[in-house]
Amino acid sequence: xxxxxxxxxxxxxxxxxxxxxxxxxxxxxxxxxxxxxxxxxxxxxxxxxxxxxxxxxxxxxxxxxxxxxxxxxxxxxxxxxxxxxxxxxxxxxxxxxxxxxxxxxxxxxxxxxxxxxxxxxxxxxxxxxxxxxxxxxxxxxxxxxxxxxxxxxxxxxxxxxxxxxxxxxxxxxxxxxxxxxxxxxxxxxxxxxxxxxxxxxxxxxxxxxxxxxxxxxxxxxxxxxxxxxxxxxxxxxxxxxxxxxxxxxxxxxxxxxxxxxxxxxxxxxxxxxxxxxxxxxxxxxxxxxxxxxxxxxxxxxxxxxxxxxxxxxxxxxxxxxxxxxxxxxxxxxxxxxxxxxxxxxx
Length: 346
Fold this sequence. Notes:
It contains 13 helices and 12 strands. It has helices spanning 4-10, 17-24, 28-35, 45-58, 64-71, 87-103, 117-126, 142-150, 174-185, 203-218, 233-244, 258-270, 304-319, and strands spanning 76-81, 106-111, 132-135, 156-159, 169-171, 192-197, 222-227, 252-255, 280-284, 298-301, 326-328, 334-336.
């Protein structure tokens, strides 16, 4: 019968950071910097590859508990959103979680329901539950974000929004997305177009509005911009009911979020307006949901997954001493044409 000592000696030993360093022929401190994605790690691509190859060969896994004790970090990133059910925010979550998994961080999700915003923010940051915070909000005013968050905490990155006086954000090319929608809607003899946008004090809404109005003027369309306090389905429905109750309705509508677009389609159904025969609709943001609406909804796809991933990279860099930056994802918006805007002409 095998003794306990024999079993212990037969058990495979877990690879250590020194084992990786020995195979890669580098100092253990450099291995630590590379596996922890430290931006201060000074290594050539060849050296970095040797280290990562050694990590894979040995099956090395960093000891997260020891790292937390040494660095006083939780290896957690907070992500605050206003609405988990919104397809755009779901895409951001996907990008953030995938990137965090790749670099060894966990994600703590939180919402900022009305009346609980300040408590959610301050609890996460001041209790030490997270090392840094990503905020994706199209509703909270700049003044709240600056006074309660950005002016008091260094490791915070805004997603899909810029706040006056703040230096860390990752956005997409919203203006180009709006321009692409108007360009598409300008076909089929369109003469009048209406855009539906979020709150005027949020820069995301203003960037989309700017792109919409610029493109409408470029294509010679008579245009109207409607601003509402939020971005949801009910907002789109209410605007739709009011707009479609008038004697003269526009030839086309651009909804600056897919949720508004869904709400607008509902209003058209309630008002017995045929889409696309009577009016054509395009919404910003894509989602599989768009395929299952009646009619299916033409959308502009924005690189929101990549935006989430790049926001993580920026935040981790800042937590490791890097400088804050206002970044724009380079990927361009794309158009997916569906029934709500496709008017086939014989």
